[in-house]
């Protein structure tokens, strides 16, 4: 896979907890690093065949391997925040497939 074929831009973020002026804890996200990738949202048919929760949206990200990626990161793509489910190396550890999901019904 060539770098020019990676069409999408994503941002990896970590969650931090700060206190506001009233002393209440507020969760926010801090940008760690960005990456170019191929981002593909799984279709409804694929989700039904896989027997996964239909209240979540799943996506597959194929990108260059980066040792900084952990399961504690979140992925920001088109103003949607996704949780990382798995990180699978492939092609002699030069690339990875990152599986992510986000809640699409109810509150996060």
Number of strands: 6
Q: In the CATH hierarchy, what is the architecture at level 2?
A: Beta Barrel
Structural class: mainly beta
Oligomer: single chain
CATH level 1 class label: Mainly Beta
Overall form: globular
Number of discrete domains: 1
Give the arrangement of secondary structure elements:
Layout lengths: L7 E12 L5 E17 L2 H7 L5 E9 L9 E4 L2 E11 L4 E9 L5
Antiparallel strand pairs: 1-2, 1-4, 2-3, 3-6, 4-5, 5-6
Structure description:
The protein has 108 residues and is mainly beta. The model has no long low-confidence stretch (mean pLDDT 86). The chain has one helix at residues 44-50; strands at residues 8-19, 25-41, 56-64, 74-77, 80-90, 95-103. It has a single domain, classed as Beta Barrel (Thrombin, subunit H), CATH 2.40.10. It has a 6-stranded antiparallel beta barrel. It is built from 1 helix and 6 strands.
């Amino acid at each position: 896979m060539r770098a020019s074929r990676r069409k999408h831009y994503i941002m990896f973020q970590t969650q931090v907890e700060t206190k506001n002026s009233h002393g209440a804890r507020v969760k926010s996200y801090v940008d760690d690093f960005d990456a170019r990738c191929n981002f593909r949202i799984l279709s409804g048919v694929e989700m039904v065949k896989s027997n996964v929760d239909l209240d979540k949206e799943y996506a597959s990200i194929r990108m260059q391997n980066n040792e900084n990626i952990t399961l504690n990161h979140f992925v920001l793509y088109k103003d949607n925040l996704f949780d990382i489910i798995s990180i699978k190396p492939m092609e002699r550890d030069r690339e990875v497939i990152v599986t992510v999901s986000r809640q699409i019904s109810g509150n996060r």
